[in-house]
Structures
1.
Amino acid sequence: MLFFRGLPVITLALSKGRIYDQTAPLLDAAGVTARDDPATSRKLILATTRPDVRLIIVRAADVPTYVQYGAADLGVAGKDTLDEHGGQGLYQPIDLQIARCRLVVAVPEGFDYQRAVRQGARLRVATKYARTAREHFAAKGVHVDLIKLYGSMELAPLTGLADAIVDLVDTGNTLRANRLKAVEEIAPVSARLIVNQAALRVKRAAIQPLLDAFARAVS
Ligand code: PRT
Ligand code: MG
């Protein structure tokens, strides 16, 4: 365990972009402000105005992993990435209600998805959310071949790689720009504060006030 003048150091994992941008005001309200801006700095460990609190910058999908193994005590992760990770070892005390969007099934505008499902067609589905997609289609009794992608899922149906995608939608502009339509909502998504379960037991005195400050900043 890391200490600063007798206080345990608290490490919070965040991803650059919308998660960082929308978490920063909540952190400010909790008295924690980064000393560098991750949008311009190349540092991956950021000191804050609280000498016992530091931020680490990781890929969005890696946040649950850092917290699961205790490399970070806390993190902020979308429900999409948490469901895909599985949530082992994580306590999820607060829905921060930021970075909101929806996880959906989308297909080309001209494709009759409901009819394909009724007819028992086997669908090729491209997604980075393989686990969530597999569970969703299994629960519906739809047969799918899943194709794992790491980004730009919208391209898959346009190039013949897949019949459908499972992806996040916010305004719907990206789907429209690529002549796709959402045909099914799998889940609403927002970012959650996550905590390593062991860290919460061992560092409760240090972590609980931060959780309380987050909770106050959200409500
Ligand atoms: O981008 P990178 O490859 O680095 O990683 P990432 O995509 O995992 O991270 P990031 O920062 O893009 O997303 C982090 C989290 O933000 C996600 O895990 C979600 O929980 C949340 N979030 C909220 C979103 C969106 N809204 C969103 N609109 N993540 C992605 N998008 C993308 C979506 O994938 C699609 O390509 O934006 C596009 C759709 O937006 P609209 O407004 O055109 O519908
Ligand atoms: Mg992205």
2.
Amino acid sequence: MNQNLHNSEKIWINARIATMDPQVEAPYGALKNHVIGVKNGCISALLPVTEINLDDFHGEIINAQGLWLTPGLIDSHTHLVYGGQRAGEFTQRLQGISYAEIAKSGGGILSTVTATRNLDEDQLVEQSRPRLEALVAEGVTTVEIKSGYGLTLKDELKILRAAEKLAADYPLRLRRTLLAAHTVPPEYKSSPDRYVDLVCNEIIPQVAVEDLAEAVDVFCETIAFSLEQCERIFTAAQKAELGIKIHAEQLSNSHASALAAGYNAWSVDHLEYLDEAGIAALQKSETVATLLPGAFYFLGETRKPPVDLLRKYRVPIALASDLNPGSSPLASLRLMLNMGCVLFSLTPEEALKGTTCHASQALGIAETTGTLSVGKAADMLLWDIDDPAQLAYQFGEKSLRQRIFAGEISDV
Ligand code: DI6
Ligand code: FE
């Protein structure tokens, strides 16, 4: 009997395994008639059933009865820790006022900044809890949470600490991203460069010292930060040895993706206005293109991200919820799988890659999560489906049977 399997604490038999491993040459990286073993929270074995003898195995055997096993879902872009809500702004937008107009008149992101600053850390945790619980319940095992609604040293740190406190209550991997450069706070309205100074010289170094985030993000847009300001922030992030992410090409083409690719950013996100030169720049990097169909849908956008060109240049595509109160108050990554296909013409397989292997790359953790491969974390989902495409095709039907985090099973 194979050493690996023999050492496993638990094994799953009779599962159809969608590894999502690009090295497995089958749709969804699927393996038939394989057994998967887990030890110390990681995948310890993945072997053809013909090569093993179950009589010698004394650990726990879980019979998956023909259900499909996939990697845990990874939501690689959320802003889910915030205070308040923006239904009033939603109503305004339905009357024809644009997102950019609302932002310019002091609403939008800034109204959430006020609500978030007014909460203490524990209140922020409790207001954010239902959003995280919704993601966890549908099979998210890794989530990224950004700050960005504090915009002072104290309040940005408060959000990152709240994210950590909240996530610790669930079987979940957390990746935190500092998005102090989300918008210029009112205190710096007449001197935005001084705010960028604060972000680069104080907030980023402090977050690094306290180990409160793994990456730095910036919103590059006419209503937010310029290319030059982004570059300053990237330089500060690099100096602090933090990963780089960017909100780019959402409402206009600023060429920010090409800039970020030059810094080997983990991901560039949104991308409706990304052009071919930007895509060529991404191809030369390891940067992931993250699509956010929830924001496209919720803002009623019409310009779609250039999916065909991303395919042509073989840029890895991730798909995330962008969960936030202004442009995507949609606490469901399963919904994004469906929207990625219906709105952006991704295939169901591309959509699932976007929430597993490519999402892990977008968070700088592709070595340890995102596929069912020996040595990686045993974050796995067991689904009562006949075809993995059903994960993108259906929405709302309860098909998750087991949620496995670091090898531990929770029934759902
Ligand atoms: N782009 C977005 O879609 C979100 N942030 C960003 O930079 C929106 C955030 C909000 O409206 O509160
Ligand atoms: Fe976002």
